[in-house]
Design goal:
With 73 residues, the protein is of the alpha+beta class. 15% of the residues lie in helices and 44% in strands. The radius of gyration is 13 Å and the shape is flat.
Length: 73
């Protein structure tokens, strides 16, 4: 139900950052989710690459996903 999506990619020495945010329905991150493996897969891949993955979502306001991974210099 989002009408806006923003993707920001930035790089600084040794780190790549990707932030994806929308103005959609959002959800309560403290509640277990049924079904899909999308977010779990993203978090697992980040960890495998030595990175981090942070998810913020507010019901009725949207969702923001921030992924940071180390890069070789």
């Amino acid at each position: 139900r989002a009408t806006r999506l923003r993707i920001t990619v930035s790089q600084k020495p040794g780190e790549l950052s990707v932030v994806v945010s929308d103005n959609g329905a959002g959800f309560d991150t403290s509640q277990p989710r049924k079904g899909g493996y999308g977010l779990r897969n993203i978090k697992k891949r980040c960890e495998e690459m030595g990175g981090t993955c942070a998810l913020d979502s507010i019901p009725g306001e949207g969702t923001r996903l921030c992924v940071k991974v180390r890069t070789s210099q």
